[in-house]
Amino acid sequence: xxxxxxxxxxxxxxxxxxxTQSESAGKSDSCAGCPNQEACATAPKGPDPDLVAIAERxxxxxxxxxxxxxxxxxxxxxxxxxxxxxxxxxDFQVGLLxxxxxxxxxxxxxxxxGQDIHQSxxxxxxxxxxxxxxxxxxxxxLPHPDEAVIWRGPRKNGIIKQFLKDVYWGELDFLVVDxxxxxxxxxxxxxxxxxxxxxxxAIIVTTPQQVSLIDVRKEVSFxxxxxxxxxxxxxxxxxxxxxxxxxxxxxxxxxGEEEDLTExxxxxxxxxxxxxxxxxxxxxxxxSSGGGAAKMCSEMGVPFLGKVPLDPQLCKAAxxxxxxxxxxxxxxxxxxxxxxxxxxxxxxxxxxxDVA
Length: 356
Prior knowledge:
There is one protein chain. By secondary structure, the chain is of the alpha/beta class. It has eleven helices and 15 strands. A hairpin with a 5-residue loop joins β12 (about 250) and β13 (about 260). Mean pLDDT is about 90; it is low at about 1-5. Belongs to the Mrp/NBP35 ATP-binding proteins family. NUBP1/NBP35 subfamily.
């Protein structure tokens, strides 16, 4: 779709299209036979008044960060949730907006299942995990957590717009937006609705193997086409990492049956090499022989933020709706915290440059 002086010009438009926002859109002689004629003739003209309302809401938000992924199941929502927890722990005012309409997992990951949205004279009130961490999700509006959201694009776009213009966040340092995987209607909408208010950029989450990176390349391409800065790529589930003492040990018999030898192995280690039990064992889960996310970032000219291992303690924190940084049990928390600190320092430095 091209941009003209009178609005966008659809790719399948007739020659000499007057533009979708022109007063003659759908009515001029050049519109005859165009597949968009009826839509153009009946569409409202002029700037969208809702965009003005969104701009007013977003005027109190300093930083807006999108969290994207090329495909589902790579841990995007986990990263969004833990990023929000970490920023709140740094004493920032944080909002987490879940626009993954068909798969809203943020209420679960923030420990907010069963909460309802409340309205005040200022608008919809976010659900607060802590005084400086508010959350909004379609998940709060479903009558039952197992309820499927079966909506076409326009209705999805409508609820995203409503979240942006009607939710009263107050003063925020960071608004983290957890988007659905891929490059769908929701992505185009969030960019169009927020672009005038300034989007700091996008964090893209992937796993190391090529089947994920293929789609991440498309996500990077999408960001470049719509003018969204890629803040960096996080390689999630980058190997399995957990204390050796947390592993189970089994023998697989010739018939395929499993024999649990954990107790015997642990007894041997305690007796003959007790110091080994304090080690963390690591193993590759996905094939990263192609160079993983780091190589892809180098090829596509975008920052590589780092690797986060697959850690059962991080999975447990997400299941229980809590921060993985609240104790020292999660091995993934250290690399994740370094990534977040790098991100924050970069954003703060850029903001200082803008002010200067």
